[in-house]
Amino acid sequence: MAILTCPDCGVKVQPEDLICFRCGANLPHTPYADDDIPSPTVSQQYVNPPPQGRGPSCPNCGTPVQDPADVVCMRCRQPLPGRRPISQVVLRIGFPTGNVDVPAGTQVVLGRDPAQSLVAAAFAQYDNISRRHATVMVDDGGRAVIRDEGSTNGTFVNGERVLPGAEVRLVDGDRIRLAADVTAEVTLPGNEPDPASYGRGGYGGGYA
User: Fold this and answer.
1) Are 93 and 109 in contact (CB under 8 A)?
2) Were both Cys, which of 100, 121, 135, 195 would link to 93 (CB 3.0–4.6 Å)?
3) Pick from 131, 170, 136, 176: which is nearest to 150 by CA?
């Protein structure tokens, strides 16, 4: 049956999504025939650290603030004081096995190791993908990069190999390839034009 809401936070999700774009929880998926890697669990201590005593609450309606990253109250939608506004941009990477969404201000590791990657299930059938292959990061302003984590078979953006440890800027329409045959298309809607996008080295990285 198609997934309609995240089992952890209740936000609406798409059937092909692998993780919740809001809280980072893994979404149930249909395992592959040769998928012998158990579905990974999300470390909620990383996504939502346990509060020490009484946590902050909305000054307008008094609702407890569950997520430290929230900039508006989830109940009354009023701005929370002292919170830096974060872009609503969500980077989507469309792999053949499902979509990986990376909201602004977060990062996702791509790889086969469930202990390191929230989306390891997407790569369980690919032996040529490293356990920790690459990391995709989106900053608070919606600027995205991908970094190769010293993968065995390489990370490529539009056919150009990313040097190990180097960060390469991602823009809407880019094509990512992990190893020889795991390809994905980047969708980055609603991003404001940025002068840095004219160069591909957004975070100080770039092609060799």
Assistant:
1) no
2) 100
3) 131
- Sequence-ordered list of residues with C-beta below 8 angstroms from that of 95, at least 6 positions apart, any chain: 122, 182, 183, 184
The SS3 of residue 183 is strand
Q: Identify the pLDDT of residue 87.
A: 64
What torsion do the CA atoms of 163, 107, 144, 3 make, to the nearest 10 degrees?
120
Three-state SS at 122:
helix
Burial environment of residue 1 by CB neighbours within 10 A (0 to 12, 13 to 18, 19 or more)? exposed
pLDDT score, position 117? 92
pLDDT at site 86: 58
- Smallest Cα–Cα separation from 138: which of 128, 130, 129, 146? 146
- Those residues with Cβ within 8 angstroms of residue 29's Cβ, 6 or more apart along the chain or in another chain: 18, 39, 98, 121
Q: Which residues pair with 186 in a beta bridge?
A: 93
Read off the pTM: 0.56
Q: Are strands 106-110 and 134-138 parallel, antiparallel or unpaired?
A: antiparallel
Whole-number Å distance between alpha carbons of 95 and 18 = 10
- Residue 173 tokens read as 């329409």
How many angstroms separate the Cα of 110 from the Cα of each of 114, 121, 122, 136, 181?
10, 10, 9, 8, 15
pLDDT < 50: residue spans in the chain: 33-35, 37, 39-51, 191-208
Q: How many helices (H) and strands (E) does the chain have?
A: 1, 10
